Amino acid sequence: MEIIQVVGLGIISTILILIIKEQKPMFAFLIAASTSILIFLFLMGKIGAVINELERMAESAGVQMIYLKTILKIIGIAYIAEFGSQIVRDAGQESIASKIELAGKVLIMVLAIPIIGIIIETVMKLLPA
Amino acid sequence: MSWLNEWMKEVIMVVLLATFVDLILPSRSMERYVKLVLSLLILLTLLQPIINLFTDSPEQKLSAAFQTQAMNSTNFTNGKETTLQQILSKADQMKHQQQSQSLQWAGEEVARQMKQQIQEQTRSLVQEVKVLLTLLPAKEANEQALPSITSVDVVLQEEPQALQEQSNQDHNSSQPILISPIAPVKVEVNLEPVKPESNSRDNSASDKKSEKVWSPNEKNAEDIVKLLQMKWNLQSEQIQVKQSEDDGKI
Fold first, then answer.
1. In the list B127, B135, B185, B187, which could disulfide-bond B145, CB 3.0-4.6 Å?
2. DSSP alpha helix (H) spans, chain B
3. Tens digit of each residue's pLDDT (9 = 90 or more) over B210-250
4. Which chain B residues are Cβ-neighbours of A71 within 8 angstroms?
5. Is B150 in a helix, a strand, or coil?
6. Is some CB atom of chain B closer than 8 A to the CB atom of A102?
7. B69 and A104 in contact by Cβ < 8 A?
8. Helix (H, G, I), strand (E, B) or coil at B155
9. pLDDT tens-place string over residues A6-39
C-alpha cells in the first residue's frame, strides 16, 4: 500500500502548491522540489532491492559483471537526468532542463565508446590487411 | 559444447536485462540513446566467441577501458575530492603503521625493563623477554586507545650454578653437569594449570633429567611470575616462562 502514501503525498503537495502559488511562487517551487526528492528517496530502497535481485540473477547465470554494471549505469544516468530536468522544468527553466537532458544523453553515449572501440577493433582484425 | 552453453546463457541474460531496462526507463527522450548502447552491448555478447578468437576476452578490455575513462574524468572534473580522499586514506594507513611501530617499540622497551628487573631480583639469567602489546579500544569517544600487555614470554637461560660448573665455553648449550653432554635438555616451565600435558611430555621425553634441574627452575619461574605480576599488574596466565630451547642444535 505504499502507492497510496506516494499518491497522497503528491496530491497534498499539489494542493499546497496551488494555494501558495499566488502569494509565493518561490515556496511553491520548493515544495515541488522537496516532494519529488521525497518520493525519489522513498523509491530508493525498492530500486536497491530490484538491483540486488538482478545482480544475483546475473551472477548465477554467469553473465559478466561488466555488462550488468554498464546497464545499471545507463538506468542510473537516465533516472537522475530525468529527475533533475523535470524539477528545473517545473521551475520554468526550459533551456536548463534541456541542457541537463543533453548531459544525460552524452554521458550515456560515453558509456558506449569502449564497446564501440572493441567491436571496431575486432572487425578490423577480421578483415584481411 | 560447454562454451556454446555459456554463450547462449550470456546472450539470453543480456537480452533479458536490456528489455527490462527498456521497460523501466523514465522517459522517451532518452530512449534512442539507451537503445543504442544496449544494442551495442548485445552485439558485443553475440560477437564474444569471435572476439575471443582474435583478442583476449572483451570483458577485461571493457573494464580496463571504463577504468581509464573514470580516471580521466575524475582527474578532469573533481580531482580535488578524490585527492582528498586519497590523502585521507593514506593518512589512515600511515597512522596504523605508526601505531604498530610504536607498539612494537614500547613492547621492546617494556621487555628490556622486565629483563633488567628479573635479573636484579631473582638473579637468574634471562635470555629473552618478549612482550606483546595490543591497543585496547577506547571506552569513551574522547579517550585515546590504551595499549595493554597481552602476553609476556620469558625465556630463561642456563641455571647460573650450572653455568659456573660447566666446562663448556658455549653458554648457549644448556646441559646441566649431571647428564651427558649429548642428551638434549628441553625444559618448559608452563605455569598454566590447563596444560599439564606439556610438562609431562617434556618430562617423559627427557626422563634422564634429574629433579635438581627441574625444581630450581620452577621456583625461579614462580619468582619471576610473581615479580612481573606485582610490578606490571599482570595476570598469571599472561606470563610464560620457558627454558631456552637452543639444545636442538646439538
1. B135
2. 2-24, 31-54, 58-76, 79-122, 160-165, 196-205, 211-232
3. 444 445 566 777 777 777 777 777 777 777 777 765 554 44
4. 17-18, 21, 38, 41
5. strand
6. no
7. no
8. strand
9. 999 999 999 999 999 889 888 988 998 899 889 9
